[in-house]
Structure formats: C-alpha cells, structure tokens
Design a protein that fits this description.
The chain is built from 8 helices and 18 strands. By secondary structure, the chain is of the alpha+beta class. Helix 3 crosses helix 4 and helix 6 crosses helix 8. The longest helix has 16 residues.
C-alpha cells in the first residue's frame, strides 16, 4: 500500500476575500446551494505518493484537460453534510465519521482510492474554521459542506484512474423546501428507475442523481416537489426519493423504512431517525413496502404519517402522492405529530439545544 504523504494543511488565505458588507448581504437570504464561501480544501492523490499536498486555498475555477478521466468515465463521488452554529456559540459537525465512512464505501464501489477518515474530517474542519463568518443567521441556517472526489488523470483508456483530486467547498444555506412546515407532494415515477441490483444505488455518485433528473422534471411538470422511485425489477417496492430516504408511521405504533438492499443510499439522517424512533418507543421495521400497500394503508387510515429525510431537507412530511393512476393523501395531508417530534429531536441535537447523549456532534475547536 502506498503511504500518504500528508503532513498538515498548507493554509493559503484568499488575497481577495468577500467584504464583510457583501458577505452580510449574500447570507441574509441564501436559499440553498447558490452562495459559496471564499475558500476550498484541496488534496491530490497519485499512485506513487498517495494523498498529498493538502491545502486550503481561495475558491476558484478548476483547470481541466479535455481528456480528464472524470469527463469521460464519470469516476466521481461526493458527500453532503452540514456545520451548525451551536447554542453555546461553538461550531459543530453532525456525525462526520459516518460521512467519512460512507465516502470510502462509495470510493470502493467506484474503483477509487479511499481517504483516511481523519484526513477527510480535518479538511472539513480547516475549511469551516477559515470561513466561519459565512454562517447565515436565518431560520434553519447552516453551512452546507460538499466534499467530493474525481478522477483527474488525463487518460482515455477504460480503467480506474491513477490520479484523483479531493475537494471540499462550503455553501451558506437556509431551508431546502420553501414551504417550510407544509407537507410536500411527491410524484410516483412509473417510467424510470433510480438503481438496480448490482448497480451503484448505495454509492453517493453523481451518475445516480443524473439518472433521476428526468423523473424529477416529470414530477415538477405534474406540480410535485419530489419524485419517489420503486425497484427496477418489479417496479412495485418503494425505495427512496431522488435524494432522500422515506419513512412510514402506522397506527399500531410502528415505523417502517425500506431496507438497505444495495439499491438504496444508506442515509446518515435515516440512521439517526431509526435510533431516535426506537428510543421514543416506536417499533422499528426495516421491511419492503409496496406502492399498493402505501395507497391502501393511506386510504384506510392505517398509515398515519409519511416523511422523507436527508441532510439537505432534514425531515420533510409527505402529504400527497400523485401518479398517472391518480392520487392519494396520507393522514390529513399535513405534517403529523410524530414527524414533528422526530424532526425536533434531531434538530435540537444538531444545533446543541439538547443533550447529545449519542455523541453525534463533533465540536470544531
């Protein structure tokens, strides 16, 4: 195994940072994914050196040769995570070790090199430290962090690349869905699948999201906020939304989410919700759930609530499902009590408003 040549981060502050006045204006209403901070973390990889040249530099365009491998064979993975301003004024990351571990699982699936988990987290911490003034003081505001890796070797042969770049950028964000506490409406895709057995569904790679965009456009055309995908084989079993896991709450005190079968992304928010739900006395079930069951249970009243969860949106209630067959409503079509409770329990931990008995928050010192 090649030893990494990492020997601390070289910090190179931007010589032309955003002025305090301009920054304040930008983060007053940041939206989601539109505004970016002044810096980025960058680390290079080669087969002979391993990971090396770790640095914090001014955020700027990348110069890529037209034959750069990622542009042709899509060797690329990423993570999504957030830094929060905690109640005591400090800054915290929510379960960053889980992001690091999932990043390496994605790397394995895409025939890419793993990165030391401590180095992954250090890159994020260094970026947050230098750009901490970018935290938006808005409801639900945070610093969204996007670590990603891509094949940077200039080569057109079909094989795993020998050179890679790992980069982290940061974006001040507000709420993901503008509707706030209102439940979202989702479109049941009948023409498209997100992933199949043996594919890349469990990896967080850009190709999965590219494949979902046409279905998302179909959802928008039909007045829906998101799209839900079903299994590729029978097109009957609920899997996940374009970028979020799904949960179902029933009148018997149980909560169900589709099992991780290699086609579903193992969400960190999903994992946290499962623990919180169990500790709230709900009977947790990781079981297959069909689209017909979903509709029947909604119509009978057996299904009380449904919500989607992920880093960006945290927890968002699903009130209505539409498809070419028609539509059905879950509960009264609004956010249910248990959804609100689970969301608040999670957010309070993330933002330091309650005791973190799970040890999920890592403070940046």
């Amino acid at each position: 195994m090649v030893r990494d040549q990492h020997d601390g981060f070289n910090i190179q502050p931007s010589t032309n940072p955003t002025s305090a006045e301009a920054r304040t204006a930008k983060i007053a209403d940041p939206g989601f994914g539109n505004i970016f901070t002044d810096h980025m973390a960058v680390i290079n990889y080669s087969q002979d050196k391993g990971w090396h040249d770790a640095r914090i530099v001014a955020r700027g365009p990348l110069s890529l040769d037209p034959a750069t491998a990622v542009l042709h064979y899509a060797q690329e993975i990423f993570e999504g995570m957030k830094a929060y301003r905690l109640a005591d004024g400090s800054i915290g990351l929510f379960r960053p070790q889980e992001n690091a571990a999932r990043f390496n699982l994605s790397a394995d699936r895409m025939a890419m090199p793993q990165i030391d988990e401590n180095l992954f987290i250090e890159a994020i911490e260094q970026l947050v430290k230098i750009d901490m003034d970018w935290f938006p003081n808005v409801d639900g505001g945070s610093l969204y962090l996007r670590p990603f890796m891509f094949a940077s070797e200039v080569f057109l042969g079909v094989r795993p690349a020998k050179e890679y770049m790992f980069i982290v950028i940061a974006s001040p964000v507000g709420a993901y869905f503008k509707k706030g506490a209102d439940a979202v409406t989702i479109w049941a895709s009948e023409n498209y699948s997100r992933a199949a057995k043996g594919g890349t569904g469990a990896a967080k790679c850009g190709g999965n999201y590219a494949a979902s965009l046409i279905a998302q456009a179909e959802a928008a055309k039909n007045g829906c906020d998101q799209v839900v995908f079903f299994d590729a084989a029978e097109h009957e079993w609920v899997e996940e939304l374009g970028g979020m896991n799904l949960f179902f709450i029933f009148d018997d005190g149980s909560i169900l989410t589709p099992p991780l079968s290699g086609t579903i992304l193992p969400g960190i928010t999903r994992k946290s919700i499962l623990q919180l739900a169990k500790d709230q006395g709900l009977r947790v079930r990781e079981e297959r759930y069909s689209r017909q069951q979903w509709e029947d249970d909604s119509n009978s009243g057996k299904l009380l609530e449904c919500f989607a969860c992920g880093t960006a949106a945290v927890v968002s209630a699903v009130g209505k499902v539409k498809s070419s067959r028609g539509e059905f409503t879950i509960g009264n079509g609004s956010t249910g009590q248990m959804t609100v409770k689970l969301r608040q329990l999670l957010v309070d931990i993330q933002r330091g408003n309650s005791d973190d008995s799970y040890g999920w928050v890592k403070k940046i010192t």
